[in-house]
Amino acid sequence: MRPLTIVWSTDIHLDHLDPGAVHEYAARVVVAQPDALLLGGDISHATRLRDDLDRLAELVPLPIHFVLGNHDYYGGSVDAVRASVADLTGPPLGWLPVSGPVRLDDGLALVGHGGWGDTRNGDFARAPILSDYLAIEDLVGAAGRANVMAGLTDRDALRRRLDELGRDAARTLEPSLREAAAGSRHVIVLTHVPPFPEAAWHEGRPSTPPWQPGFSCRAIGDLLREVATAFPDRRFTVLCGHTHGEGHVEMAPNLEVFTAAADYGTARINLVRWDGEIPRIQFG
Ligand SMILES: [Fe+2]
Ligand SMILES: [Fe+2]
Fold first, then answer.
1. Which domain does 250 fall in, by range?
2. How many angstroms separate the alpha carbon of residue 22 from the centre of ligand 2?
3. What is the rounded distance in angstroms from the CA atom of residue 12 to the CA atom of residue 10?
4. Burial class (CB in 10 A: 0-12, 13-18, 19+), 2
5. pLDDT: is 134 or 123 the higher one?
6. How far apart are CA 51 and CA 47, in angstroms?
7. Which ligand is closest in space to the CA of residue 135?
8. Would you state the pLDDT for residue 129?
9. Which of 42, 134, 54, 49 is nearest to 93 (CA)?
């Protein structure tokens, strides 16, 4: 029997690709003959996200399951961007926070949420100012644009907002994750921000403490540890991106995290193959 094949791409940043490159990417996906396409966030920008998703669905005649990354909110607000995809409950396009658990195969479920760099890991006092704080309306509101430009953000207000976005992500994911674990022996968790500092790979090594606040989502990490402990006979494979570096880490005997590389201007294809036992990841 042919194993289930899934294409997993993250950080494709379609706003950095010309139309020809988008066609070429879609053609590479189709040639792999997958059963589904997973998009791990940083798909585009707020102003064109929905159009880019609809266009991709025309070019790739497959179920497309996706989560949002920080760049998908650039030029918009968190609520407005989420509202723009809230009707996408699947197929062909399924935004995982609203579509809930997806049964990919007998014994294999998919859940997801993009998460957020929630500042709770590492050293936020020494964290660099990220472009998120200038490009996402909610964060501009919390940090103050003039302050950000001067490098003098209201760090406490910003930290509280980012922390809340992380907690909201975990609260949204938790029911789906528990439902999937109760019903399937293996669960794939698609997210954008690495849930652990150990998975925040950048240029061949995990991120340093000043980068961890923006490059990891503690709230989802804590949830994953809790659910993996509660379901010791289930296995969890986490797929993430955001840091644009490739790596793999085992956080518990039944919990492993794959972080895929990315480059602006290139859309990579990674393969997930499932033969009924353990998903095998082949980085592209
Ligand atoms: Fe990215
Ligand atoms: Fe990102």
1. 4-282
2. 19
3. 6
4. exposed
5. 123
6. 9
7. 2
8. 85
9. 54
Residue 249: both structure tokens together? 């880490």
Band (pLDDT 50/70/90 cuts) for residue 221 is very high
CATH number at residue 270: 3.60.21.10
Ligand with smallest separation from the Cα of 11? 1
pLDDT at residue number 150: 61
**CA 158, 162, 167: angle at the middle one, nearest 5?**
145
Distance 271 CA to ligand 1 centre (A): 19
| Residue the block writes with tokens 């919390």 | 142
The whole-number pLDDT of residue 141 equals 79
Tell me the two tokens of residue 174: 């938790």
Please tell me the distance between residue 74's alpha carbon and the centre of ligand 1 in angstroms.
12
Span between the terminal Cα atoms of the chain, in Å = 24
Q: Which two tokens stand for residue 52?
A: 């880019």
Ligand having the closest approach to the CA of 73 = 2
Distance 184 CA to ligand 1 centre (A): 30
**Rounded Cα gap, residues 26 and 58, in angstroms:** 10
Q: How confident is the model at residue 171 (pLDDT cuts 50, 70, 90)?
A: very high
What is the domain count for the chain? 1
Q: What is the pLDDT of residue 67?
A: 98
